[in-house]
Write a structure and sequence with these properties.
- With 480 residues, this protein is mostly helical.
- It is built from 21 helices and 2 strands.
- A hairpin with an 8-residue loop joins strand 1 and strand 2.
- Helix 5 packs across helix 11, helix 5 packs parallel to helix 16 and helix 9 crosses helix 21.
- It starts with a helix and ends with a helix.
Amino acid sequence: MMMEIDKTIDAAFEPLSSAVASIVFYSVSLMGLDISLILVWLVVAALCFTIYFDFVNFRYFRHAIELLRGKHDNQQADGEINRFQGLMTSLSGTVGLGNIAGVAVAISLGGPGAAFWMAVMGLFAMSTKFAEVTLGVKYRQHGSKQHPEKISGGPMYYLRSVFERYGKRRLGQFMAGLFAVCCIGGTLGAGSLFQVNQAYQQALIVTGGDASFWANKGWLFGLLTAFLVGLVILGGIQWIAAVASRIVPIMAMLYMVTGMIVIGIHYENIFGALQQIFELALCPQAGIGALMGALLVGVQRASFSNEAGVGSSAIAHSAVRTDKPISQGLVGMLGPFIDTVIICMVTALVIVISGTYIEENGMEGIALTSRAFASAIDWFPYVLAITVFLFAYSTMISWSYYGLKCATYLFGEDDKVETIYKMMYCGFIVIGASAELSNIILFTDAMVLAMAIPNIIGLYLLAPEIKQDLQVYAQSFKVK
């Protein structure tokens, strides 16, 4: 029986491994990665896990809230941070400029209908997030002899373990290493380049554009931002979690309140905007091409925003203080709901209600959102600038941790490895402030979405194990 399983795995995954290697090569060279195929991969996974886990994203939503509030906590459990800090650290990595600039990019390319598909993807992505966070906690490991108190977890560890279980040690090492390499590339793109680039662009907008002090001084803006990021990431996950748990709630509320004010000022357009979003998402006048365009762009930006299936958030949640991996998986699935369903929809409504997206300026990011805010109150872009910087800053500190854990997985838990990676990460922040948005989007999407290939393979292989653990957990807590 085991030999038949081995043959099946060989037949299924060896060709796939070659394909993955080719994809990564083209990703790094900024060529040839068919984003639409990766999106199908993510969508199918989200749908499959939602059905396979009996709609865990809806049935356990209330219980997840209770867990987040501290109910059923075991203070003696192993871990470095609490549940709330884990979720906030994860959210600080996802609630970033993808929620502001990313939504603007989606609407400028795919029209208002893209916002609907972003929300739909966010709901189903909760199940994927549940699976990867659960496994991240379950397969986490303690650090090296130098730092035994440190905890490391994420797709690298459960990918390696699941293939070793089937006697495919080398394939497991390849998959885990592939994820780690793509994650490091993704952290440098999504975590530093894109974030600081859009923060700098908004700073230019509110300070006079070409006449601004910051004009042609992207390097200086990046240098100052890198300094602020370096102050936090030197302290490791405890400092990152402490800062994230304070910044994320404040910045989210500030942005939500400002967005609701803009929506309220244009209250007469609310019904029309919602109608337009639904009609263009489901029954676009331009036909099936427009429908697929809105769907693909919406799903792409949603995937970039909440990262479900990518596996990055599992790295942050792995450090949480808990003895029940399923419980943290349930808390983790709240991330896509907060990130994509709530915050992204506020951005989408602001843009659609204001009508600023109608201007034909091609692909736009933060500039489109800024015009939408200015349509209500002319000084609102200044509030947006503060929020943008907080969003970008929180994302940068969290993604630095993701890349760091992948670097130490590849090169060992060593202080020198950590120092070199942190210096490189801060260096990319300086570079990102002056780079072109289109090039950053291409590089970031390629590397981040490529992480989903090995990660979701591991989720499929371990899904029966997760389902069994979920059933045991439900019985122990009498959750229906």
